[in-house]
Amino acid sequence: MKISRIKVKTSSRSYNIIIGKNIINNISKILNNNIGKFNKCLIVIDKKVPKKFLKKINFFLKKKKIIYFFNSSEKNKNQNTINKIIEILLKNNFYRNDCLISIGGGITGDVSSFAASIFKRGIKFINVPTTLLSQIDSSIGGKTGINSKYGKNLIGTFYQPHLVISDTNFLKSLPSREVICGYAEILKHSLIINRKFFFYLEKNAKNILNLKSPFLEKAIFKSCLIKKKIVEKDEKEKNVRQILNFGHTFGHAFEAAKKYSNKLNHGEAVALGMFCALNFAKVNGNLHNNDYKIIVKHYTKLKLPMNIKKYFSKKDLNKLISFMKKDKKNSNSKINLVLVNKIGNANYNCQFNNSKLYNFLLKNLVN
Predict the structure, then answer these.
(1) Catalytic annotation on 16?
(2) Burial class (CB in 10 A: 0-12, 13-18, 19+), 294
(3) Which residue in the list 77, 188, 266, 298 is annotated as catalytic?
(4) What does the pLDDT look like over 130-182, one tens digit per residue?
(5) Of 185, 235, 255, 268, which residue is the catalytic one?
(6) Helix/strand/coil percent split, the chain, to 5
(7) 303 catalytic residue (yes or no)
(8) The whole model's pTM is what?
(9) Is 288 one of the annotated active-site residues of the chain?
(10) Which one of 2.10.10.70, 2.30.30.40, 1.20.1090.10, 1.10.510.10 gives the CATH number of domain 177-366?
């Protein structure tokens, strides 16, 4: 069994990301070696995770366990869910050296980690991401959050996990739509910081999307390594970590405008948001035309979301701009975007007034 380890070192905590196949079979040993002793744990698990995985964890995790089945959706990523989790922890007299284990995708991880961060000012938190998107992105870096009617992830904390366990066996149960969503974030990492990695993806994307070894494991490891290095430099997103938001200002607005429906999920919204940001960079003179054409070819080949008119019309414009204005990454009345200058290089400090973004979206929705 090949296992890869990445050590993340931040000012608040150091922890391991463990990547491998069938590694939940060794979950008790992994927990003992990485977080030490605890008496009991609350497992928050996405209802969509196949029951065979929970049976395995139940069998191999020799601790007192309480299980909360979470109906994972952006609509349930709210304060009501947090209250339910906190109530379970309080009712069962959890101590700070006990732990909360999240088993699911990014939504489950965001909700669980937020609850862990506020219960008694912080309980041990273990993330077991089960989607490609969460294994390469949301499980790393300590961002927690829930949604409100004003926008996505506007309520949250920075709370680094105590351990991340990424078992690639979970990915076999995913529909292809979810795999493509995860791939969009892998692509994001290459576009903003690693040109060589982009051309590795250009050559091996189909193998990654088909979950073939060793291409899948290499893509996961490389993406985690990229995010680790950025998080270590800027844990609280004061400067360089903002580069990871490439495509997200558009993407989060798209999700919110669709009321977090499954017509446009998070990964698809980010992929579409990235493409909008690429187009905006080209129009604005930031992105060289040759690199733009290479990226468009990659999008087209993999059938990633590119057409904003498929999801929105002119009547949605004011709503989209309103959500972009409320984005948590803005520091003033202007809208902050991450723009790619060339493949492997991006600028995270680009601010634009509302009218410029309005006109850009108008052109894309009308023409």
Answers:
(1) no
(2) middle
(3) 266
(4) 999 999 999 999 999 999 888 888 999 999 999 999 999 999 999 999 999 89
(5) 185
(6) 55, 20, 25
(7) no
(8) 0.91
(9) no
(10) 1.20.1090.10
